[in-house]
Amino acid sequence: MPGSSFPIGKLFGISIRLHFSWFFVFALVTWALTTQYFPALYPNWNLATSITTGVITSLLFFASVLAHEMMHSVVAQRSGIPVKSITLFIFGGVSQISREPDGPKVELRIALAGPLASIVLGGIFWAIWLTLPVTFEGIIAVTFWLGWINLLLGVFNLIPGFPLDGGRVLRSLLWWRTGNLRQATKAASNIGRGVGFLFIFGGVWLIFGGFWINGIWIAFIGWFLQNAAAGSYQQLAIQEMLKDHTASEIIDRNCLLLPPDTTVEKLVNEHILPTGQHCFIVAEDGHPRGFVSLQNIKTVPHKLWPGKLVREVMTPLDKLSWVRPDVNLAQVMNTLSQHDLSQLPVVEDGNIVGMISRDNLLAFINTRGKLGI
Ligand SMILES: [Zn+2]
């Protein structure tokens, strides 16, 4: 998912983020509840009551989506797989689980946890709805709708199209049977694309039938599913390919050693702009002290460059994320994306021997992709 999301808090050590497309759905759900659902049930409600109840219901709806993702994430963390964040966006939620599970049983547990949470929540809302006396009309309308939407969320996610939870369940079962993650992913991803195309087809059919809002929505979901299914297989194939190569293959060893009292202005004007070089090590008496990246330089306002020294802007060696030359490139890619870095120093025996940039890694992947190897 492209950027444009921001953090809203932390739960169980997992950062919760909102994507901007979330606001669109929030508004849409609130609008549909306020103008259609509540007035149909309670024509005597005034607009303020409808809007307030609509907003509260929408918030509870997103809390339900969050609970679904939280269950995936908590089970993943319990299985030793770190979860970076949960992002709520236009189609619901997505957990950024840092890596593929180690085995099919773990994947099955993680995949089932979410839909199970939704179905249980749905049951709880309906239990409240059934036991409340009819005089609690607001709460009755809200709990009925939330029960229904949570059950729908649980069942929809169990559709066996990867990367939906049901697709993950399918993949884990195939993986269990064949012992081959790549083959299992390929099969599950193909079925996922098929499900995506069915949604697109169904959506277009509805559009021609005159139900164009629902039709566009369903076709849109199908398009998203189809893309995600194709993307997740590609991603796995890339990871597998990268596992066979080490960091040493793409190190840029032309790093420049800088004295600590070099000014940022001098660095930019004499080294970065004329040569396009990106790898700068701040060294004192032959010992590396830190690393300067374009990201470091960007944090200093332009007009302060003449007075700022590289040792003031560098990332010191002990605070630096780095890799050894013999780690595999899949790990390098994970480190880059986990810390959101564009470059990564390679360190051997306490010395920085070079640098790996995201661009180099992408070029490596692209070239191999084009050659089909
Ligand atoms: Zn899920």
Describe this protein's structure.
Helices cover about 60% and strands about 15% of the residues. By secondary structure, it is of the alpha+beta class. The strands form 3 sheets. A 4-stranded mixed sheet has the order 1-2-3-4. It has a 4-stranded mixed sheet with strand order 5-6-7-8. Strand 9 and strand 10 form a beta hairpin. It is globular. About 35% of the residues are buried. It binds zinc ion (ZN). Zinc ion (ZN) binds near residues 68, 72 and 114.
Strands in their spatial order, largest beta sheet: 1-2-3-4
What would the average pLDDT be, to the nearest integer? 86
Looking at the structure, what is the overall shape? globular
- What is the number of helical segments per DSSP (H or I, 4+ residues)? 12
Q: Main sheet, how many strands, which sense, barrel?
A: 4 strands, mixed
Number of strands: 10
Helix proportion: 55-70%
List all distinct small molecules, including ions and cofactors, that are bound in this structure.
zinc ion
Which features does this protein show?
373 residues, alpha+beta, 4-stranded mixed β-sheet, 12 helices, 10 strands, binds zinc ion
